[in-house]
Write a structure and sequence with these properties.
Length: 238
């Protein structure tokens, strides 16, 4: 079995007195595409923010590459190969597409390879190439999502965390985003995908976890979960 890259144990996160994440365990192994699904307010984004050091833990631990990353900031984590595309994308709106991609490589010093990687990103997202000098703030939601993913890939991550990449996108754009997630994974990047679109997420994932009211309530092989009547009734609208 491949190595565990990310291991979350007994994770608790609170907002003031309110526990949003109440003791969650899960892991992501090298080369896997794992999805965390669940309805609104289940605590998925809170979990992602705890992993990337944006929110403090009130209990439990998070290990990356076998070491606790509790208290580490996003900068440190990106340097260690853990990159995140946040919900809402967070592109630099007053910079061009090319400049946004260059920002994604801020931890790197290998200039010629950075240029080659930008070309690779343009290969995955021809739309970004067509618009490379356009200001990111003037792009559509789907284009900004592509840019946010491209920017994260510029750090050459080992693990890519994606928080609801399909949110607010048109059906065609959703197709494209899921295709690209799959492609990134096929190129060897380990992926943790948070999604409300459970059906699509389970279709491309190896394994899945269901989160409900701050707890993991189900987990398993993605294919088995897709055919599980309980999952189908609760999350796949059947
Ligand atoms: P969604 O898919 O709607 O983003 P989610 O599963 O990502 O849902 P979270 O955003 O993690 O859920 O929210 C978990 C719980 O924490 C919710 O009850 C939410 O209202 C609460 N919460 C989130 N952010 C804050 C905050 N800044 N202050 C107080 N409560 C918060």
């Amino acid at each position: 079995m491949s190595a565990t890259l990310l291991k979350v144990t007994g994770l608790k996160v609170a907002y003031g007195g309110i526990q949003a994440v109440k003791g969650v365990d899960f892991e992501v192994r090298e080369g896997e595409l794992v999805t965390l699904i669940g309805s609104n307010g289940a605590g998925k984004t809170t979990t992602m923010k705890a992993i990337t050091g944006t929110l403090p833990l009130s209990g439990g631990d998070i290990e990356y590459l076998g070491q606790s990353i509790r208290g580490k900031g996003a900068w440190d984590l990106v340097r260690q190969g853990l990159a995140m595309v946040p919900e809402g994308r967070g592109v630099f709106t007053r910079m061009t597409i090319t400049e946004n991609l260059q920002m994604g490589a801020y931890i790197r010093t290998d200039k010629p390879e950075i240029a080659a990687d930008i070309d690779k990103i343009f290969g995955i997202f021809p739309r970004l190439k067509e618009r490379k000098d356009q200001l990111a703030g003037t792009m559509s939601g789907g284009e900004q999502q592509m840019l946010a993913m491209g920017r994260a890939l510029m750090s050459r991550p080992k693990v890519l965390l994606l928080d609801e990449p399909s949110m607010g996108l048109s059906p065609i754009m959703v197709d494209k985003i899921f295709e690209v997630v799959r492609e990134v994974y096929a190129q060897g990047v380990t992926v943790l995908l948070v999604e409300q679109n459970a059906s699509r997420a389970l279709q491309i994932a190896d394994r899945g976890y269901v989160m409900e009211s701050g707890l993991i309530t189900m987990s398993g092989e993605a294919k088995q979960m897709l055919s599980d009547p309980k999952v189908r009734a609760a999350y796949l609208g059947e």
